[in-house]
Specification:
The complex is a heterotrimer. By secondary structure, chain A is mainly alpha-helical. Chain A has helices at about 10-20, 25, 30-35, 40-65, 70-75, 80-110, 120-135, 135-160, 180-195, 205, 210-240, 240-245, 250-255, 270-295, 305-315, 325-365, 365-374; strands at about 260, 265. Classes of the chains: A mainly alpha, B mainly alpha, C alpha/beta.
Chain lengths: ~375, ~80, ~400
């Protein structure tokens, strides 16, 4: 477990895939509902805002070299409080993984395989996920390097092929309702794109070799993912218009349906492929973080033994977690923002604050030691 | 349908245990064995209850309850 | 031994991975290329599906079968009606290759929102769906016809709409996304091409096809919708005005007839239009700037068109005629109280505060009282291949 090392380029491609994640297909719709046709501005604002959080996660790794997140929590908060927070983080990872599997199953059964039970699709995805988890981090991250190129190619094709369908007047008037809706939209986007990246802290300091250029790799991956998301948002509004984007459950899928040059039509399957790839890697990151957290928390020697049982539980719960589309709409908007806020913002912020408080207290309680070292 | 599903769940649990448990015992991985059995038991029981159409409590509900003060704040911000 | 067991186990797993639930065999599917919506006297929906007959289209030699099969059913809701067509067909109706939607006039008068909602939700719809309204008839009548030149009648309707909009500017090409945006927006109403039957209804479709007669279907004019209900029609000239204001046509033709000049017809090569909103003391005004480049296509009087003065004179007359055509479209739209030109949306884009005060009842009050001015600028760039009229010396 501790012997796996991934290179910076692999960290970059994993971050890029994980930043895209589920937003490729779903996020354009609620954001357009919240801030109208200025959704693309919200995307830019949240991307710039998110750099702060990437720096925060990087700082966590710098302050505690060669420790993963659970070990950091235990060091800073002690055994009992650290235990509770670790359990909360484990639940966050596994629960988000269950939600991602549920998303995949729901999409396929809405658009393609209407009469299939959701469990059959989820079973397929979880079998592949089990394979990825059992093979380990290195192998999966290498495949992410290749598959990221595929995703970039498909998204570039989607955008270029839709250029002839753009109607510029869909984006006007700009900033009609002021900045507050953009703040709302960027809050929503941040909770999906940036705060979940806390799971990178299970990978970053302990499995990468060169710590300082790891920051560059993470930022590069983050910006690539954000660029793809920004273009998705922009193209959805330019081609489909605000009302249509906010009404569709999967707006990017409908965007892909608009492509038609002569023989080249009905290529929306490509977009589904790109989405499945990015969603798979995000799910892999969640599950890997979850399983590593459990094995670090319980001090297991072999983390691979618990993969099958946990994924079994995930399969069973995948159809329970979102009982209806109304529940999904409520949970994804209100509860998820709070949930990822606690795990992605409060948690690292508190760790850093408490660490500095502890250090300051140490210095004041032992002034003679400080004098000796000085 | 439900009997097939229950049979599949039981078959999965049994086959997995036959393959994995001896390996774990040989390497004295007792903590892993405990976690393994706990999760497998949770999965099997929940799975059988789902096939029998018993309503399983949704973990998202408990999380929403836990986070309800923050949810109120978010509701206020988002309008 | 263990490995053999494991191999058997994995092969057995393939049973679960091949997707048995949603298999669709090709010979169990009926591909519908056109769908017609009507309402009958009891208020039920009547749906007519035009289904491709693969035996007739793919046959090497000519069969005596028609290339499409038409099925009509009535019911309370759309999906229920389409599913009940399985009692008449041996296959399941599949909408993935749907190209045309025809709304009957009665159906359109009561509102197409339900049908559009169905099409947006239905997972099989493609976005290449063209919308038309049947004029003075039902969609059932329209879809019960075969066409010449194309095996597939809906392909013929679609290409007719596209080509006609491009070179003659009488039809309007509207697809699913545009229609959805028009229905959702306050400042723009939808306009759809109208189809009507030619005077004579053929009694034996296949027999009539064998003679070189006209197609029974003809695209004529455009239907004006307000919100989602049909409120009026644009005739040929008004449709051209509408398309000129939008700049939808790339070429077109029109002629003018004056006493001193005779009949001159123009071939318009390049049409651009721009809508400008100007606010004067709280009331907005729309100016549509049309720019057109034309060549003289036809003359019957001998005019000296090598002189610039003659050309200028013809330009002024052409501009007048063009303004007249466009104003008829605007007058018709105001008469039926429906903003089909998107002037409301244009006001929204340029001046959102002004729009907020005007957007209530925009179609009924704001649009009707909106002063619209059309400024046309025609430049005659040439006289095509010959310079003077051929029988000039004789006069």
């Amino acid at each position: 477990m501790n012997k796996e090392k991934i290179s910076n380029h692999q960290l970059y491609s994993l971050t890029a895939c994980a930043t895209c994640g589920s937003s490729l297909l779903v996020v354009a719709s609620p954001v357009t509902e919240l801030c109208g046709r200025d959704g693309w501005i919200a995307s830019i604002v949240s991307s710039l805002f998110g750099v702060v959080f990437i720096l925060l996660y990087y700082a966590l790794g710098q302050l505690f070299p060669n420790k993963n997140l659970i070990q950091i929590i235990r060091t800073v908060f002690g055994k009992w409080l650290g235990g509770i927070i670790s359990i909360y983080f484990i639940i966050f990872c596994i629960h988000s993984g269950i939600q991602i599997t549920a998303y995949i199953g729901q999409f396929i059964t809405t658009e393609y395989l209407i009469t299939s039970p959701v469990y059959s699709i989820n079973l397929l995805i979880l079998i592949i996920m089990a394979g990825a988890l059992l093979y380990g981090l290195e192998t999966t991250v290498r495949s992410s390097e290749i598959l990221l190129k595929v995703v970039i190619f498909i998204m570039a094709f989607l955008f270029l092929a839709n250029i002839s369908n753009i109607k510029v007047h869909y984006i006007q008037p700009v900033l009609e309702n002021g900045f507050y809706p953009i703040f709302k939209g960027s809050l929503y986007i941040t909770s999906y794109r940036i705060w979940p990246l806390i799971f990178l802290n299970m990978i970053y300091p302990i499995h990468t070799d060169n710590s300082s250029s790891a920051l560059k790799a993470m930022l590069k991956g983050y910006f690539l993912g954000s660029l793809i998301m920004f273009l998705v948002m922009l193209m959805s509004i330019l081609v489909l218009g605000t009302h249509v984007t906010s009404v569709f459950v999967y707006p990017t899928y409908f965007l892909a349906k608009q492509i038609s040059f002569g023989f080249l039509s009905r290529v929306e399957g490509l977009i589904v492929g790109a989405w499945l790839i990015t969603l798979f890697f995000k799910g892999f990151c969640y599950f890997y973080a979850g399983i590593q957290s459990i094995s670090t928390f319980m001090r297991l020697k072999d983390c691979r033994k618990i993969v099958y049982p946990i994924l079994f539980v995930v399969l069973i719960y995948s159809n329970i977690v979102y009982p209806s589309s109304a529940y999904l709409a409520f949970w994804d908007k209100y509860v998820w923002i709070s949930y990822s806020f606690t795990a992605g913002f409060l948690l690292p912020a508190f760790i850093v604050i408490v660490y500095f408080i502890q250090k300051a207290l140490q210095k004041t309680s032992r002034p003679e030691l400080a004098q000796d070292s000085a | 349908m439900s009997t097939i599903a229950i049979a599949l769940i039981v078959a999965f649990v049994v086959i997995l245990s036959i393959i994995e448990v001896p390996k774990m015992l040989k390497r004295c991985l007792y903590k892993e064995l405990v976690l393994y059995s706990v999760f497998l038991l949770i999965g099997a029981v929940t799975g059988i209850l789902v096939t029998l159409d018993v309503k399983i409590p949704n973990p998202s509900d408990s999380l929403a309850l836990l986070l309800s003060p923050l949810v109120t704040v978010v509701k206020f911000i988002l309008g | 031994m263990k490995k053999r067991l494991l191999a058997c186990f994995f092969i057995l797993n393939l049973l679960f991975l091949t997707g048995c639930w949603d298999r669709n065999e090709l010979n169990q599917l009926a591909f519908s290329t056109a769908l017609g919506f009507d309402r009958n006297s009891e208020g039920d929906i009547v749906i007519t599906a035009q289904i491709l007959n693969p035996r007739a289209i793919a046959a090497q030699k000519n069969t005596n079968e028609s290339s499409v099969v038409v099925v009509a059913k009535q019911g309370h809701s759309i999906l229920e009606t389409i599913s009940s067509m399985s009692t008449e067909l041996s296959r399941e109706v599949v909408g993935t290759h749907m190209q045309t939607i025809v709304f009957g006039e009665n159906f359109a008068k009561e509102g197409i929102a339900e049908a559009t909602d169905f099409l947006l939700r239905y997972y099989q719809t493609s976005s290449e769906l063209y919308f038309t309204v049947a004029k003075e008839t039902t969609a059932n009548e329209i879809l019960n016809n075969l066409t010449k030149l194309e095996n597939d009648p809906s392909a013929k309707i679609n290409s007719s709409i596209v080509i006609s909009q491009d070179i003659w500017a009488e039809t309007n090409e509207i697809k699913l996304t545009e229609l959805a945006n028009c229905l959702a927006s306050d400042g723009l109403s939808a306009v759809m091409t109208g189809i009507e039957m030619q005077a004579e209804k053929p009694d034996d479709s296949l027999e009539k096809l064998k003679l070189t007669q006209n197609d029974p279907l003809k695209l004529s004019g455009n239907a004006i919708l307000k919100e989602d209900k049909l409120v009026g029609w644009l005739n040929e000239e008004e449709s051209q005005g509408y398309n000129y204001i939008f700049g939808n046509a790339s070429t077109s033709a029109f002629d003018l007839q004056e006493d001193g000049v005779g009949k001159v017809s123009f071939n318009m090569k390049h049409i651009t239009s721009k809508q400008e909103i100007s606010c004067e003391g709280g009331t907005p005004k729309v100016t549509v700037l049309l720019e057109m480049q034309a060549t003289i296509q036809n003359m019957d009087h001998s005019l000296d068109i090598s002189k610039q003065e003659t050309l200028n004179q013809l330009q002024v007359l052409a501009e007048k005629k063009l303004k007249g055509i466009c104003m008829t479209a605007v007058t018709k739209a105001k008469a039926v109280k429906s903003d089909i030109f998107g002037f409301g949306a244009a006001i929204h884009r340029t001046d959102p505060q002004q729009w907020n005060t005007m957007k209530k009842d925009w179609n009924d009050t704001g649009f009707v009282n909106l002063p619209v001015e059309i400024e046309a600028d025609v430049t005659i760039i040439g006289t095509d291949s010959i310079s003077q009229i051929i029988n000039a010396k004789k006069e």
